[in-house]
Design goal:
single chain, alpha+beta, Structural Genomics Hypothetical 15.5 Kd Protein In mrcA-pckA Intergenic Region, Chain A, 5-stranded antiparallel β-sheet
Length: 135
Amino acid sequence: MTSTPNNEAAAVRVDVWLWAARFFKTRSLAKQAIDGGKVDVSGTGCKPAKALHVGDRLQIGRGEERLEVVVLALSERRGPAPDAQALYQETEASLAAREAARAQRKLGAAGLLRPPSRPDKRSRRQIQQFKEHQG
């Protein structure tokens, strides 16, 4: 993995960095997210070719997830996940918000009680008879 030290004034394209940091599976998906307004650099929208520097703050939206990260290192190459995680640090507010959203989803699914297994043949017939007599 090629990362640049903090004292260099090097820059990497935002879409390439998002791909290298493993936020998106392909660079083209990263580009689509940026074009769709799902990625902001330092609070403002950006284009895929915008130069990203160490210390920049990114707000990334992936589906239901909202992440806010600070760029710690730059890379143009996609490497193993532990190396990719060293490229950024998620903010405390972002971690807290994601945990709260996870807890909310868990509470929403708590009311949905599913049977432990599928009904057997006899039970299916009883369900069918019940539905016929109700309707």
